[in-house]
User: What shape does this take?
Amino acid sequence: MMCSIQITKGLLDKYGPDRVLDTPITEAGFTGIAVGAAYQGLRPVVEFMTFNFSMQAIDHIINSAAKSNYMSAGQISVPIVFRGPNGAAAGVGAQHSQCYAAWYAHVPGLKVLAPYSAEDARGLLKSAIRDPDPVVFLENELLYGESFPISAEVLDSSFSLPIGKAKIEREGKDITITAYSKMVGYALQAAEILSKEGISAEVINLRSIRPLDRAAINASVRKTNRLVTLEEGFPQHGVGSEICMSVVEESFEYLDAPVERIAGADVPMPYAANLERMAVPQVDDIVRAAKRACYRAAPMAATA
Amino acid sequence: MAAAALLRRIPAARAPPTALMAARTISDSTAPLTIETSVPFTSHIVDPPSRDVTTTPAELLTFFRDMSLMRRMEIAADSLYKAKLIRGFCHLYDGQEAVAVGMEAAITRSDSIITAYRDHCIYLARGGDLVSAFAELMGRQAGCSRGKGGSMHFYKKDANFYGGHGIVGAQVPLGCGLAFAQKYRKEETATFALYGDGAANQGQLFEALNISALWKLPSILVCENNHYGMGTAEWRAAKSPAYYKRGDYVPGLKVDGMDVLAVKQACKFAKEHAVANGPIVLEMDTYRYHGHSMSDPGSTYRTRDEISGVRQERDPIERVRKLILAHDLATPAELKDTEKEIRKEVDDAIAKAKESPMPDTSELFTNVFVKGFGVESFGADRKELRATLP
Assistant: This one.
């Protein structure tokens, strides 16, 4: 429902007008209708033009979808997917640039996924649609245009990725960087720069914000002893805060430095290009934070 | 026994006087009876149905019984709430029974119903039982939501009753979604989405109506207009309190919601219309004797005279009682006996519900997901309380 940015291109021809529907621009109405259809056992995929507009429908996502299975003691399950671009695009201003990962991942009963690569997008969306619970699927407009190498396995029609499992995009020994969506690409760029300075960074692509793969994050930190959390969204009460707390709870003794946090600036997104650049994490910020985490303890010993 | 059976087949109008009448039992005849509704229907951009409603003696007696059961259940819930056995919110339906009962008589269990939080009687109408209702109100295991939902979250999916919703107005788009699924599956069934005069002003209603009209969904929007949205009278909340007209390009019907036969006729009409043509709005002119909820005495924004006036002039149960007696389908004593049976049924159900234990503590973590992947969930102190979601 709600066609945009050509993601649904070709679907109408393939599946017909009974299954691919354009809606009026009335999020509360069409989201409620989709959730009601899911109550009856259909499997709707709701598209928000961007997740900024999901706020018009957030009551249905949370109160009508996320909580229903619990309140009804399992009678009313809601096999629905809410998908669309999330986070900052370029120059679209304050009302069109927010990242909703932290808000939706806050809610028990929702699953929240954030693909980075083409493999992620394909595998996670398939799992999301097959999943019997409500899934919020946070894409990224700038990533739509990026190309990624893909294996034959990924192209197979049965390919899917498990929900709740992160991916180690790049293995490393000295520091862990967690990221999701577009920031994974930035973290990988930062890791390249860090490696030239003798710091081996392990980049974790979270893929799943809720459930969060705490096991993978903690296993990595127990190996590297240092952590930078990275996200595009506002910093306060963000995804990084939860990751930091998880590590403090489960792997405190393994930390050799305080956890570092890189996030979007704590301001509504400005329009001017220079200010916008300051409002979103840049690769430099990630590199700087990683170095801070590495130089607080004794200088880097021989990295065996 | 044979004599009694013979007597039952004699239509009431032909029954010979007193001697035989004393031996007559309550009529369970299914011989058709035509009764006029209290007032004609008022309609908006559609021709209204006839005022003449076909019913049977058996149906009228069922109406009496069902509405009396609902009435007694709600009154008992009032006492349980005051005894602090029911906590939080408790929104009672007494006065509005004719809507629940009349609607059910017009449709099948394949049609869907969704409503807001004043849901106890709809649950009963859809086949829910008293024990699971009272147990849910008291937060016990035998509750229809195993104690996890409470008063506002009763559901009965096997009877196509989808709750039970706490957010004013949300149930209307959800109901249009149920209708979408019915149409998608070519089921020739309809959905009744109930809402109040307060919710009638919600924007999402109009969004859902617009989409329903565009896609010709079998949605029937039923405004249970009890004239007060919480404590606000309809004329202070709605610029246009003619709720049956608010659909604008969608047809509407105004119905005396205290007349169970009018409700039945309107719902039958609405279902046929919705399956063939798309959405329709029904406005049920009804009344609640209780306040908005148990926290509201209901008398600070209405006069006691108004409340007792409605009780005297328009009570749905009394109306059916008069009909039954006028058509000689039962004696006053027989109806009183029915009411006594109902009281006992309700008392027994409460006793049984009280025996049900509170949910096991493990239930804190059940049903968060259908499929949990073995992830963990946490209590207030996660080092003390955590669980793996199945």
About this structure: The first strand of chain B starts at residue 33 and ends at 36. Chain B is about 40% helix and 10% strand.
